[in-house]
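Many introductory courses stop at the sequence. We go one step further.
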Amino acid sequence: MADHGLTGVLLVGGASRRFGSPKALARFRGETLAERAWRVLGTVCDERIAVGKPSDGLLLPFALHDDGTQVRAPLAGVVAGLRAARNELGLFVPVDCPLLTSAVLLELAQAGGEVAVPQTGPLPGAYRRSVLPQLERRLAAGELALRGALAELDARVVQVDPVLLSNANTEQELRLLEAAPEHVDRDVP
């Protein structure tokens, strides 16, 4: 059930250098990574925004919001997503975490603080619009590490099963994740 007050932001602006082709279009259990992440966000968010670079020419089944920068960094996507969101709280999901569940997203959303992230780092994460000025300053200064921004923010850490946070940086990693037991993504309708 979608929460009225949560914006889900799908980050699809990565270069996919190690993957060899656009990760967003890679297939996983019958759907693309982008479709899967979009669907999971839709189970918990009343608004969804995909952020990336339209110049990449990805053929996605939903609109892509331009992150407005030349850099390829998750920070640029988070800034663009917070700017575009109509809700105060945004859930940010990288396109390459196919085992991420709606339950994890809800835990992040309910953790409180300016930012809530899993123990592994800044994404996926829940970011409040109140952090936008700090993130914009970092982006303008070329300080692109989102992890570095966490030290400046009121970040809560949520303990999450590390398997659910697995990402696919290569085609081989994606195939290994696809072989994970089906129960891992049981929260995904």
